[in-house]
Design brief:
The complex is a heterodimer of chains A (about 250) and B (about 300). Chain A has 11 helices and 10 strands. Chain A is an alpha/beta fold. By secondary structure, chain B is mainly α. The chains are: A alpha/beta (about 250), B mainly alpha (about 300). The structure holds adenosine-5'-diphosphate and magnesium ion.
């Protein structure tokens, strides 16, 4: 079981000037697990994702992936190792086609080695087939040659999810994937996240939409003001008075 | 006739210059260093054919290599800064190159005359073409063979994954990093390709003008270089070609009677273009519409 930890955060800390965005967070995600990360706006959830991806240096603490310290690695190396993400505010390559958005994202270590030459031409057969399968899975096959910037909002969210999977991640970080979605879309998202887990992908799910988190997450961690204030099963977290205080801003708890 | 042939030569060389900036601009970097690489290519190729009597093609290959190496060397430190700071840093590099050639003298006695660069007076008598019996038409053909080759290679690059990766970096560096793209490597590579193309362009320029001097490689040339792809758009290489024809052919030559007022017009045009069509005149949307129109017509004919 020792190797079963995919991600470990030890004393993760990030200060922006005087703002303690993330303040000594310890967190472990086990292999194949879906961990929900919730917390009020500004509690540091997105910053944690950015730190795991290596977008800015840590103030203190360490990030371990598969037991190895990756705290100093540049972002693209972390993707090659198997960590990918989506953004809270969708960041697609709007001037590229849907197909190209997935093409440029095939950056796992294996993909880099296997397809070196064809990558610079039209893409190898295997790589193309992989993209086509992904587009089918996300119901975007009919949009493959559209510019990503011209897609409807829900389609853009799906494409970003697909793009995060293009590099065959072991760990997927989803930053509020349900934001702005309607009930039907959220249901599809729910089933796709479960499908991901069946395929062996470990998921860190940040979400405001409680129903979704409670439904798919195995465990939930709660952040407030950059600190972890609770962790446990959905029901345990829901009935935790500290969590209720953080969300409601009242002291009715105990 | 000679006037038009001369114009076609200018358009060819400026297309190379514009394409060198196009490569860099694809990654979202506005570089004013291209005139510097162009100058290096011009002086190096000129010295190799005039002083060492090398064949022109070999000299151009060396220009390409040096232009690329210099661009790679400049790329690493320069690409640490972004936006306006990058513009300033690359412009400073371009000026440094120009000042280097302003002070650079290396002359060799050849019969009654001295050959080679002579500081502020420039580098005269680069007479490879007349000495080897190339007529104007031969030169035009030579230039355009190279232009077509470079355009074909960039066209292919644009269609390959490289083109998509360069554009991804140009559009959103943060997203590109997060999808596993090594943005430093991509940006430096683009800069290097740009340097290679500018080096070749400069080498050709030196030989058809036969006389180069530092002042030709100043900030004005650097501005032209970046203006072509900005105006022509980044969808494909033909945008840059069209922009060169438009600016050199119509604006500079066609409106000669306006004298220096043309520069004002040129500046105004760039500002206007950036405001109403920030992705160039031929942007992806326009091309998509064109493609749709073409395929619709095709269907109608087929039916
Ligand atoms: N790049 C940044 N620069 C400065 N402050 C930031 C930056 N990113 C986040 N913050 C601050 O850090 C805190 C946590 O933000 P964030 O991680 O986005 O919260 P959440 O995702 O939980 O809503 C906020 O106070 C926010 O203003
Ligand atoms: Mg957030």
């Amino acid at each position: 079981m020792g190797n079963a930890k995919v991600l470990e955060l030890h004393g993760l800390t990030k200060h922006f000037g005087g703002v303690r965005a993330v303040d000594g967070v310890d967190l472990t995600v086990a292999s194949g697990e879906i961990l929900g990360l919730i917390g009020p706006n500004g509690s540091g959830k997105s910053t944690i994702v950015n730190l795991i991806c290596g977008l800015f240096p840590l103030t203190a603490g360490r990030v371990l992936f598969g037991g190895a310290d990756i705290s100093e690695l540049p972002p693209h190396t972390r993707v090659a190792l198997g960590i990918t993400r989506t953004f809270q505010n969708i960041r697609l390559f709007g001037q590229l086609t849907v197909w190209q958005n997935l093409w440029v994202a095939q950056n796992s270590g294996e993909q880099r080695k296997q397809n070196f030459l064809p990558r610079w031409l039209g893409g190898s057969k295997g790589a193309r087939a992989e993209i086509d399968r992904m587009l089918e899975f996300f119901d975007l096959g009919h949009k493959r040659d559209e510019l990503a910037g011209n897609l409807a909002f829900g389609e853009q969210r799906r494409l970003e999810f697909a793009r995060a999977l293009a590099a065959r991640p072991a760990l997927l970080l989803l930053d509020e994937p349900a934001a702005g979605m309607n009930a039907e879309e959220i249901e599809q998202l729910d089933s796709r996240i479960r499908k991901m887990r069946q395929n062996g992908v470990t998921v860190l799910l940040i979400e405001h939409h409680m129903e979704l988190v409670m439904s798919v997450a195995d465990r939930i961690a709660v952040l407030n003001f950059g600190q972890k204030i609770a962790e446990g099963t959905a029901s345990a977290v829901q009935s935790n008075p500290v969590v209720r205080d953080a969300y409601l801003g009242t002291t009715t708890g105990a | 006739m000679d006037f038009y042939l001369g114009l076609i030569q200018i358009i060819g060389v400026h297309t190379l210059l514009g394409l060198s900036a196009y490569c860099v601009l694809l990654t979202g970097q506005v570089s004013l260093a291209q005139a510097g690489f162009f100058a290096i290519g011009a002086y190096v190729a000129g010295m190799l054919t005039v002083l060492l009597h090398w064949p022109l093609v070999l000299a151009l290959i060396v220009s390409a290599i040096l232009g690329g190496a210099m661009a790679c060397a400049v790329g690493f430190p320069a690409l640490r800064v972004k936006g306006l700071m990058l513009v300033v840093a690359t412009a400073a590099f371009g000026e440094a190159v120009r000042l280097f050639f302003f002070n650079f003298t290396y002359q060799v006695q050849s019969g009654a005359i001295l050959l080679g660069p002579h500081g502020g007076e420039g580098f005269r008598q680069i007479r490879y073409f007349p000495e080897h019996g190339w007529g104007t038409l031969d030169v035009v053909l030579f230039i355009w063979t190279i232009v077509v080759l470079v355009m074909a290679m960039l066209w292919w690059m644009d269609r390959s994954r490289v083109g998509a990766v360069l554009r991804a970096v140009g559009e959103d560096e943060l997203a590109a990093q997060s999808t596993g793209i090594n943005i430093t490597a991509v940006k430096v590579s683009a800069m290097t390709i740009g340097g290679i193309i500018a080096g070749i362009g400069g080498g050709i320029f030196a030989h058809y003008t036969t006389h180069i001097e530092h002042i030709q490689f100043g900030i004005v040339l650097a501005t032209f270089a970046i203006a072509y792809p900005i105006l022509g758009g980044l969808s494909n290489v033909f945008g840059t070609l069209l922009a060169v024809i438009f600016i050199q052919g119509l604006l500079i030559e066609g409106l000669r009677f306006l004298g220096d007022w043309r520069n004002l017009l040129f500046g105004g045009l760039i500002v206007l273009a950036m405001n109403i069509r920030p992705r160039g005149l031929l942007d992806a949307g326009v091309l998509m519409t064109l493609k749709r129109l073409v395929s619709r017509n095709g269907e109608r004919k087929g039916a």
